Amino acid sequence: MNRLLILIVGIGVWILSSLPVSADVSLQQLIDETPMNGELILENKQYDGNIEITKPITIIGKKATTIRGDGKGNVVLVKASNVTLKNLIIENGSLNRSSDEEYSGIRTMGEHNQFINLVIHDVYHGLYINSSKHTLVKNVKVTGQGTGKLGSQGNGIQLVRTSNNLIEDCTISKTRDGIYVEYADKNEIRNNYVSETRYGLHYMYSNDNTFYKNRFNKNTGGAAIMHSQNIVLKENQFSFNQGSRSFGLIIQTSTSNTVLDNEFYLNQRGIYLEQSTQNKIEGNKFFHNDIGVELWTTSTSQVFTKNHFEQNIANVLTIGAESYNQWNQNGMGNYWGTELSVLDLDQNQIGDSPVEYRSSLYKLVEDNELAYLFLKSPAIKIYEKINEALSTQKVMVVDEFPLIEKEKESPPWMLLFIPAIAIAGWIFTKKRRSRLS
Amino acid sequence: MNYIWKEWLEQSRGKGLWLGLAMVMLTSIFLLMEARSYPDELGFDAFLLSLYDMNIYLVPIFALFISSFSIFQEKELKTSMILLTKKESNRSLMLKKTIAIQTVVIGVFVGWYFVLAIAMKWFLQFQLTSFIYFLLTVVVLLLIFNQLGLFLGNITNTKMQLIGATIFTWFLFVFLIDLAFIQYVPSVSYENVKLFSWLYFLDPLHTLRFFLETSLGLFSLNNMSRLMEKMIWMAPWKFLLIDLAFWMILFFELSILFRSKGEKS
After folding, report:
1. Which of A273, B43, B95, B178 would bridge with A299, disulfide CB 3.0–4.6 Å?
2. What positions does the domain Periplasmic copper-binding protein NosD beta helix occupy (chain A) (predicted)?
């Protein structure tokens, strides 16, 4: 009997000893115990969420400090102002779309909050800035569920009814939209890298914002500006945005935006303008796109100046009935590459006569979206030539003051390749012949 | 194995293979130099796409000429006749010749692209998986057009016929088919898009580009319109496999069916 008792007690002790220790203080408790404006330094381990922050506080983690949510809500909910979160990994938020709200890795509603050096994944929205002001988001990495689940997941960073925020040096990939901005004015978004999303940047009903030096790569669409005005997009790079009717930048139902010194590389369409007026497109480089600029008839009074068009299949297509757009300003037109050669006898870098850019591809694109599948075909050049001969091309652009670039000198060593290969071939043939004879 | 060795000796002693390869090498090097002017993270993918664009022009005509002249020479020099009277059936001769030509031509090309990979690694942000996808497009392109070349070499009786047929086939695939498609595009609707899709993806040049762009993650298959979703109703690699099987089997069988005896005097 005694032996049986000892065995039972032994098993009991063993079972209880293998259960998780509940003596650890929870993260919420640690936060609650930290005084107002105090600093909480976390250890290099995983803490359980979800947590709620209701007072000004600074939470700093180490290299692998993780806050793991229970998968049922926001992992971190910040209701207070002057909160700083730094060096943390945040994961496992709710992906449930049938709930009252769309949950996030971090949802912030206060002012002057800072989110620095964070990694956020396995959440619906990454960081949700809601009705707050003066938020700093710096070096935050958000990764979504992947391109196969674009429709069923949230955005990397979402700003709704907020203003005067700064978002910089962030990396966002595989989310629905990279940065989504709605009813949010006077924000600055700079130096971020967004890839493999639906729209790298999606902008609705928001005005007076600045986007500077961001890179949008391999998205369905680089950036979408809709129902917004007075936005400045400067020195951003929109590249490899290819797909079914993809674009580097779409400006739709928006006015008075400035697109300045950006690069549009290898997109299906560099800029797509629809139902928009008085936007200024200046100093941008359109390189190797299927279509450099696609202008629908509902877009009027845009100004295009000092843009470089190079090696696009179609530099500009205007679709639909004619609309008025200005292709020069203050005597400065655009650079049209070698396709539209023009004389410059007075050497002032401005062509002596106007140029006309003509194309017949507008008709194809207008008729059926499947036309985009053929834009890279070698046959397109023949198609254009046939239409040129038949005079069925339409004038897309008249530039009164085309700009002329100074010729770049190619490195002379490149020219050595041809004779080098020819000589190598000759030596090879000669040796082989002598060997055979 | 004997056939492969014989083919290699014949091809390596001739000028055709090396001239064709030299063209590809030169253009590849120029494209590589151009790709260096792209932003760093774009350079490699952009280079692979440019190489594919170039391959569309060069590889089909190169493969057509090499393989068609190879089989034509067998007829011209009566070696095929000797082989057929001795031990080979028409089908087994064709099969062995096909394997030999495919092996030699693909071997030479793949060899060159591995050499080029060293330069890619040096100058660009090289990614092995992207490179393998690209290499796969080159191999499939060669497989299909070598097979077409073998067919042309088999059915023609004179060299002039052969040259004419080869150039026409190249022009047909690279330009004419797409011109016909472009004329037909405006009449494609949601109802008949499936038929259009079959026709579109049966063209290996379309399917290969689509496969490459989607594999490199450059062409997104998300957020497509209903029309496009119905157009792209199968994974690109499946279209590619169908293409490969269709063109190779079709032209292998046609080669045997329409085999001519040799150059008419």
Report:
1. A273
2. 151-338
Distance, in Å, from the CA atom of A89 to the CA atom of A68, rounded to the nearest integer, reads 8
Q: Which residue has the higher pLDDT, A328 or B41?
A: A328
- The angle subtended at Cα A430 by Cα A427 and Cα A435, nearest 5°, is 125
Q: Which of A147, A239, A432 lies nearest to residue B42, judging by beta carbons?
A: A239
DSSP symbols for B1-17: -HHHHHHHHHHHHSSHH
Q: Which of residues 321-360 of A touch B (CB under 8 A)?
A: none
8 A C-beta contact, residue A162 and residue A185: no
Q: Is residue A312 part of a domain?
A: yes
Identify whether the C-beta of residue A321 lies closer than 8 Å to the C-beta of residue A299: no
Q: What is the dihedral of CA A41, A47, A51, A53, to 10 degrees?
A: 0
Which stretches within B87-127 are classed as H helix?
90-123
pLDDT single digits (tens) B92-129:
888 888 899 999 999 999 999 999 999 888 888 889 99
Tracing tokens 């992947």 back to the chain, one arrives at: A146
- Length of chain A (residues): 437
Please indicate, yes or no, if residue A422 is contained in any of the structural domains. Answer: no
- Token pair belonging to B33: 């130099």
The answer to whether position A17 is within a domain reads: no
Chain A, 220 to 249: residues with Cβ < 8 Å from chain B are 220, 237, 239-240, 242-246
CATH number of the domain that residue A106 is part of: 2.160.20
Structural contact between residues A129 and A151, judged by C-beta atoms closer than 8 angstroms: no
Tell me the nearest-neighbour CA distance from A220 into chain B, angstroms.
6
Assembly ipTM: 0.86
Report which of A149, A97, A157, A108 is spatially closest to residue A132, judged by C-alpha positions: A108
- Interchain pair B222, A243: CB under 8 A: yes
pLDDT computed for residue A20 by the predictor? 40
Q: At what angle do helices B177-184 and B193-202 cross, to 10 degrees?
A: 170
What does DSSP say about strands A46-48 and A237-239: parallel, antiparallel, or unpaired? unpaired
How many beta-carbon pairs below 8 A join chains A and B?
A: 119
Question: Which uninterrupted H or E stretch holds A120?
Answer: strand A114-121
Indicate whether A21 pLDDT > 50. no
Instruction: Count the Cβ atoms, other than its own, within 10 Å of residue B159.
Output: 13
**What's the token pair of residue A245?**
């009717």
Residues lower than pLDDT 70 in chain B:
1, 78-86, 260-265
In terms of CA atoms, which chain A residue is nearest residue B210?
A: A373
Is the pLDDT reported for residue A17 higher than 50? no
- Separation in Å, CA of B161 to nearest CA in chain A: 25
Which residue range is the domain that position A190 belongs to? 80-86+100-399
User: Tell me: the pLDDT tens digits for A130-173?
Assistant: 988 999 999 999 998 875 655 678 999 999 999 999 999 999 99
Comparing C-alpha atoms, which of B193, B215, B71 is closest to residue A373? B193
- Residue A72 makes CB contacts below 8 A (sequence gap 6+) with A50, A94, A96
User: How many domains does chain A contain in total?
Assistant: 1
pLDDT for the residue A5: 62
Instruction: Give the separation between CA A319 and CA A188, rounded to whole angstroms.
Output: 33
Closest CA of chain A from B151, distance in Å: 25
Look up residue A113 and give its amino acid.
N
The reply to whether A182 falls in a domain is: yes
Which amino acid, residue A390?
L
Sign of the Cα torsion B119, B121, B125, B127 reads positive
